[in-house]
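Hi team, as promised in this morning's meeting, here are the two structures we talked about. I've kept the exact order from the run log so nobody has to guess. The first one is mostly here for context; it's the second one we should focus on when we meet again. Sequence first, then the predicted structure tokens.
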Amino acid sequence: MLFIGYSSKDRYDIVEPMIFHLKNYGFDVWYDFHDMYLSDNRIETNFINGIGKSKYVIFIISNNLFSSQCAIEELKYAQNLYEKGGITLFPILYLLRASELTGEYNWIKKIIYNEVTKNSGTLFVTNQIIEKILHDKCNALKYRSFSEISNHIEPYLKELLETYLILDSPNYSAKIALLYSAYLYMTIEKQVRFETYIVKIIKKIITFSSLNITLDHLSFHIFEMTILIALNIYVNSLSTEQLSTRH
């Protein structure tokens, strides 16, 4: 789950668009506009159940946030968890430059951040967040590369991956087609069911590709990591199936 902290004044300009993209990618988002109700205990609801139970926390840092006591308290709570290694924190500076952060907020500049304006939109910064989440998932996989996992799958998938690996790097269209073929094989032929975020990411990027919308390297990397995660799930299901058969 992801938590988003912000000033209510920034809700419609940046927060709602980011929520739209994150949910389109299939990720659960704790968003107090939807998750808190009149008379709720704010500390328990937003701090403990929201920030405290989220591995990834996004904060929209703006001048509006600095004028909101509630948002400042949430940011301090997140800072404490971040400094203890309890969460991954994404500072998004909205209509604000890092050079404007002083005093007690200087610590934010120690984290890789992104500066967003009304003209820059929210898709790119959302993709950066998704890339980090998938990167962490890939680091925890048993097989962390296509070349490594190709030794543990049937000949058809192995051939797809080996062809993929020899293609020229900028040839995104052909690379996506090969990886998508592997995904279709797993879902249609082998009837593997994947988590919502895997299905939605693949569907979203395939839609972009089908409409001949030029993909940037970031979007392609997201697609690539998602397929790698799917392949690991598939290989794990084969191992589980074999164990069940033996017993």
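And here is the second protein, the one for discussion:
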Amino acid sequence: MDGLIWRFILRRLVTSVLVLWAVATLVFLLISLTPGNVAMIFGGLDARALGLDQPLAVQYGRYLSSLVQGDLGRSWLSGAEVAGLVADRAGPTLELALVTAVAATSIGLGVGLYTTVRRGRFGDVAMRVATVIGVSVPSFWLGLLLLMVFGLYIPDLLPAGGWIPFSVDPAGNLLHLVLPSAVLGLATVALVSRTLQVSMRDALQRDYVTFGRSAGLAERKVMRQVALPNAVLPTATVIGLMVGVLISGTVIVETVFTIPGVGRLLVQSLRNQDIPVATGATLFLATFFLLLNTAVDILYAWLDPRLRDLYGRPS
């Protein structure tokens, strides 16, 4: 069984590398084919040094060769190394995404279990309405609304923007995470809770649950020890899909709340047409997304032996 796990992990890592190559190629093509003459804007006398006078195929070859060597190039504006710029901004983005993922998943699972237990009561109906609202509300609109409320009307309750590193002030850091995490994780809470609720109701109709009840298990044990482990499996799939929403949402949330993360760096570099920085930031977000998605897939395979056996078979 351990061999199957390692074979599954190896296959997922190979797939992730191929996806990352496809993302890098797509980013290069999108940037290269955008309207406007970048060479005239930034090149001037240094166009040859930047390689902007070379054919597209030559530029692509140099681009891939640099990526393989871990070289993301230098900023066309400041001349600083892109890897250093991204590394300086990675901390806030990683903290925001990971804290939001853990908090939103935990809250979503708790709400889903609560609505299953309180089925048909007022709490269940209220949570259904809240779920629909959570999925429907756009992140940028909710972020601007919270900025107005906590910035103008109740400014002393929670910080309405900015960032404090955890190493400088842990309490201040967590307070600055509340509003961005709420905006970023609202849809995740709604979808995870709804998925778990539906999965729990389906699991409660299964024969193994009926057998557990007939064996004399208390209803609470039936819910937590029999139905919940089976209902978590499809919910784990939704959690993996929502990881992409969290990563893409950091671009909007960091811009709205002025968080100095990679998402805001990406927006600024695109606005300034600083192509190497935009490429490095995009590749960082894509790599982070692939790593988290791979971790969720491995966790799902560990929870579901059927998937582990399927991927462990020879092609």
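Starting points for discussion:
Residues 265 and 281 are 7 Å apart (CA to CA).
The longest helix spans residues 219-256.
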